[in-house]
Amino acid sequence: MSKPAVFNWSGGKDSALALHHTLAQKEYEICYLLTTVNTDFNRIAMHGVREALLLEQVSSLKISLIQVRLPEMSDMEIYERETTSRLEKLKAEGIYHSIFGDIFLADLKIYRETQLKKIGMIAVFPLWKRDSLELVKEFIALGYKTIIVCVKDGLQDFCGRIIDQSFLDDLPKDVDPCGENGEFHTFVFDGPIFSEPINFTLGEMVFKTFPNPNQSNIPVGYWYIDLIGIAK
């Protein structure tokens, strides 16, 4: 019998590939997708994708969505409080497993495992320690389509590009092919787990800065390309 689980959905390629393998292996039954949304702008946190496009993804995936809604500059205390509150309700429904698309960031894995252990839940990582280049090539070969929606400053020429072999050929050698170090984020708009593609057009590109997580006084800059849904 499959174990009930919640899947942490960012809307990006690693989430999609992790969900692809989870659904194929059938060890877990995905009862809900869980996504953090910026409540000030109604966009997926960090990725900057409009909530309306997230809802189209969810509709195409045919899995119920739970949103953790956070203010623009929320701190870890707020994040942990809101996330824990949602997860405790899921645990009360009999859900004890929480699935992530992380690949190799050990500190993040330990953090997730520790936070979940506090409330008696277990973290699951279907893609853990797989080679990044192998993963992105598998993603492309499976027929998934994804667009770069957010990049670190200096990589803005890649913002708005589709991930394909040409993208991989152009990517600087010091950038992880999956953007696992936070170099870029994506929005998946088609692939085997979707019942229909998500249609959109490109909007304006904007630059935003955030406090440096390494306690530096120099802020971290990101470029965002807006995706605007097209009415069916």
Relative strand content:
25-35%
Number of strands: 10
Number of helices: 6
List segments where confidence is low: pLDDT < 50 over at least 5 consecutive residues: none
What form results from the Cα inertia axes? globular
**Helix and strand pattern:** EHEEHEHEHEHEHEEE
Structural class: alpha/beta
Structure described in brief:
This protein has 232 residues and is an alpha/beta fold. Helices cover 30% and strands 29% of the residues.
Q: Your description of this structure?
A:
The chain is an alpha/beta fold and about 230 residues long. It has six helices and ten strands. The strands form two sheets. Strands 1, 2, 3, 4, 5 and 6 form a six-stranded mixed β-sheet that branches. Strands 8-7-10-9 form a four-stranded antiparallel β-sheet, covered by helices on one side. Helix 4 (about 105-120) links the parallel strand 5 (about 95-100) and strand 6. The longest helix is centred in the middle third of the chain and has 17 residues, at about 75-90. The radius of gyration is 17 Å and the shape is globular.
